[in-house]
Amino acid sequence: MQLTLQAHTAFGLEAVVARELKGLGVENVISENGKLTWDTDIRGMIDAHLWLRCADRITLQIDTFQARDFDDLFDWIKTMRWERWITKTSKFPVNVKLNKSQINSVPNTQKIVKKAIVERLSQAYNMTQFPETGAVCAIECVIDKDQVTLGLNTCGAGLHKRGYRKLVGEAPLRETLAAALIQLSYWNKDRLLVDPFCGSGTILIEAAMIARNQAPGLNREFAAEAWPWIEKKEWLDARQSAGSKIEPITEKGLIAGYDEDPEAIRLSLYHLQQAGMSDLVHIQQRRFEDFSTQKKFGCVITNPPYGERLSEVEQVQDLTQIMGKKLRELETWSIYVISALEDFETYYGKPADRRRKLYNGPIPCTYYQYAGPKPPRENQPAPVALPE
Ligand SMILES: C[S@@+](CC[C@H](N)C(=O)[O-])C[C@H]1O[C@@H](n2cnc3c(N)ncnc32)[C@H](O)[C@@H]1O
Question: Which of 156, 265, 297, 364 could, after both became Cys, cross-link 375 (CB 3.0–4.6 A)?
């Protein structure tokens, strides 16, 4: 069965996800702002769910057409074979996004789409009432400049939900963004990685999963797992195959995290345990001001405080100066910092080799990259090259 999938990404991460798809053997990916589209089969769809680290969501594309009013929309949707995807008991909520279109009411669009699908299903199943007590098959309707795209949400909760983060710390990074920061760096599992502002441990856990080659979706469920047209065995086989690829690395200390806050350390330890990565990552309560190391060719990948409140900005500027002073001394290290602090490089005391505009949720940030020298005899893979 040929399926057209779409991976939705945060702004600026399209090339990272494209490279992940390439690694899964996907060719002919169409990349647009915030989304990547490709054709695949059922196994390819399952693998994308299990393995994509940096995409936010996946949808299965059903149809695309022009509609300028509700009549066009209703008539077209009614002709589609919804019974192929939706069973007599499926729960099928409709989510709508509108952009620069003549149809401009979200609640009315929701109602019309739902009504048209119900009408189609009523004919197909000879039923008038739908109990919606079964598996969720959420419909995604996007109308962008009058072009309607209908899809199904295959993953359910966003892909950042790996299953290990049960408690929320202060300003945590999304797991998908943390994974992307790592993929955009020169770090690999043979190099030391330090996050001196580790918070709830997201960067460390994502790095540990990459080091072990553990599929990020292995310990969670996806909406499409409950859909009857995909055999359970397909999921089981893909999960078994992903499980067999995990590398049993246990060398503790190659990935390390610090934070001054004892509550953050407690959270990190808890999440590491939930992720099954406690034996790989070293965590310790420590102020950045006390950070020092004799090790060489390590990488710092970190998300320090930004000082969003005005009262905190000065404090963060001072901390950034201390960061610059200490980290600039690590001449063989590569340093990667995501920050929303204005004039970060001035306070850090050095212009970055590369900068990337990224969003941490709604906050516009820059990813400052200071690439150190290559470790001797290392044939390291290049990070993802993104257009400037
Ligand atoms: C933006 S949060 C990091 C969030 C983390 N990336 C996560 O996903 O949970 C910044 C962290 O820096 C810590 N921090 C602030 N000042 C510090 C200092 N001087 N030394 C060490 N840690 C500090 C805070 O306790 C907080 O956990």
Answer: 297
